[in-house]
């Protein structure tokens, strides 16, 4: 899996982690996390690349739709957008002037990662537990913390460990990549209404 594809997979994983919690077999966490059809929010991301002193920072917003996929929109420092469906990953500039599309039918590794992501989104606990070792800590005040460690060699080439924490929604994520890059992200302003996509959101999945 090349570096560009790995980076896209990391971005998408950050966008879909909220429903991932509802898919685990840890009842205490399952009861605390909202399971929604559409989730919108904002993110602040900091990526520490191995060998570089200063982290890369970005901000933006996301839309997660259970029946469609994820729209991950970076606003700062450079506007861009990543759209993920079951069969593809589409990266494009905000004005649509430049786009890169990866077809899951031609990228078996990418399709495998997408399958795991959609298992998280659909609540397929069997598929999730087959791929990740899960460790949960229940915290006071409706809080929780979760660590996911890949079981498969394929995922192990991308992720070393994912750490998530939150309450009704995921609030913070840390992704330790296999190449020693570390991504930290904070989510804010999340809302599960309206429960359907707008015309513009639907168009961006096309």
UniProtKB/TrEMBL annotation:
Per the database entry, which stretches of residues form a coiled coil? none
Q: Which UniProt keywords apply?
A: Protein transport, Signal, Transport
Q: Fetch the Gene3D superfamilies from UniProt.
A: Lipoprotein localisation LolA/LolB/LppX (2.50.20.10)
GO BP terms: namely: protein transport
For the keyword GTP-binding, the answer is no
Signal sequence range: 1-22
Q: Does the keyword Transport apply?
A: yes
- The protein in question is named Outer membrane lipoprotein carrier protein LolA
């Amino acid at each position: 899996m090349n570096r560009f594809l790995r980076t896209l997979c990391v971005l998408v994983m950050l966008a879909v982690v909220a429903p991932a919690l509802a898919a685990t077999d840890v009842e205490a966490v399952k009861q605390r996390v909202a399971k929604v059809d559409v989730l919108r929010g904002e993110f602040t991301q900091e990526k520490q690349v191995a060998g570089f002193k200063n982290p890369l920072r970005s901000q933006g917003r996301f839309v997660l739709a259970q029946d469609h996929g994820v729209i991950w929109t970076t606003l700062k420092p450079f506007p861009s957008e990543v759209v993920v469906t079951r069969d593809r990953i589409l990266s494009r500039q905000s004005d649509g002037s430049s786009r890169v599309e990866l077809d899951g039918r031609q990228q078996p590794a990418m399709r495998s990662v997408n399958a795991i992501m959609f298992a998280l989104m659909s609540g397929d606990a069997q598929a999730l537990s087959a791929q990740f070792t899960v460790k949960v800590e229940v915290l006071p005040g409706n809080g929780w913390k979760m660590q996911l460690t890949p079981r498969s060699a394929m995922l192990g080439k991308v992720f070393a460990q994912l750490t998530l924490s939150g309450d009704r929604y995921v609030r913070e994520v840390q992704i330790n990549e296999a190449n020693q890059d570390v991504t930290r992200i904070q989510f804010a302003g999340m809302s599960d209404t309206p429960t359907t996509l707008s015309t513009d959101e639907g168009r961006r999945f096309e």
